[in-house]
Amino acid sequence: MAQPGLITAPGIFDLISARLADRMGFDALYMTGYGTVASYLGLPDAGLATFTDMLNRASAFAHGTETPIIADGDTGYGGLLNVAHTVRGYEAAGLAGIQLEDQEFPKKCGHTPGRRVIAMNDMVRKISVACEAREHDDFLIVARTDARTTLGLDEALRRAEAYEKAGADILFVESPESEEEMERIAGAFDKPILINNVEGGRTPVLTKSRLEQMGFKLAIYPATGFLAMGQALEQVYKGLQQDDVVGATKDHLYEFEAFSRLMGFQAVWDFDKAHADE
User: Fold this and answer.
1) Nearest Cα residue to 78 out of 122, 31, 43, 18
2) How far apart are CA 221 and CA 198, in angstroms?
3) Range of the domain at 140
């Protein structure tokens, strides 16, 4: 976070997306709650996944990659004691940071309707507990407020300021609805500011150079990967319904041997060779 410039963190949602992104040289990855719940449980991101569900996935992502991962921790999965337990679990799993939000339980995806927030002071206490619970200061606490949509931008900025004072390392004002609002957010704080880029969501998706000019430090793209996957899968599955399957899927498929190497088969092949019968 101390390096100059904007950090781009693509969303990962399963071990294939994690392995692909991990080998591409990004400075950070972002474990998307929406995509993870969808891929793991086939359910909407509406507070249905448990702490155990999310820790299972977060741990697998962390152990399957080398790039630092910031992971969605939803509301902390309960009260203050739950928040402390969640932070310790995510840190022990090998993650670089956790995102906590001020929604009421059950939470909802930040670019969908029906979100409500808890009292600001209750979230301040959650952030304080999260900071106390971590073992190392370099495990980052991302404080997210969803107040913009229902309570307005001024209230969202007031909350972000309170979360900054409570010790959050990165501030995240969800769902600004114009470039003017984004500029206000980016220029309002001394702590690094995260911007959430969701294609088809409530916030304009701008160029990275524009985001950096505004003053944002971390740009996450949680939906890009699974939206691309959905589009690609639908296209090639339609190809399977045609007579000329090879022609219909040509140029849309990852090369099989390369994909096998991506998934770690090289180590299997090397092991088999080393222990082959003479």
Assistant:
1) 122
2) 6
3) 7-223
Cα separation of 255 and 242, whole Å? Answer: 21
Q: How confident is the model at residue 112 (pLDDT cuts 50, 70, 90)?
A: low
**pLDDT confidence bin for 104, thresholds 50/70/90:** confident
215 with 246, same domain: the answer is no
Cβ proximity of 105 and 83 under 8 Å? no
Residue 262 has pLDDT above 90, yes or no: yes
CA 60/CA 155 separation, integer angstroms = 37
As given in the structure block, the two tokens for residue 268 are 């299997």
pLDDT band at 53, cuts 50/70/90? Answer: very high
Residues 6+ apart with CB under 8 A from 275: none
User: For the chain, where are the alpha helices, taking DSSP H only?
Assistant: 15-22, 33-41, 51-63, 80-92, 120-133, 147-151, 153-165, 179-186, 208-214, 224-240, 245-249, 256-262, 265-274
* CATH number of the domain residue 215 falls in: 3.20.20.60
What Å distances lie between residue 52 and 59, 85, 93, 103, 272, CA to CA?
10, 11, 12, 20, 35
- Single-letter residue type at 114: G
Query: Are residues 193 and 237 both part of a single domain?
Result: no
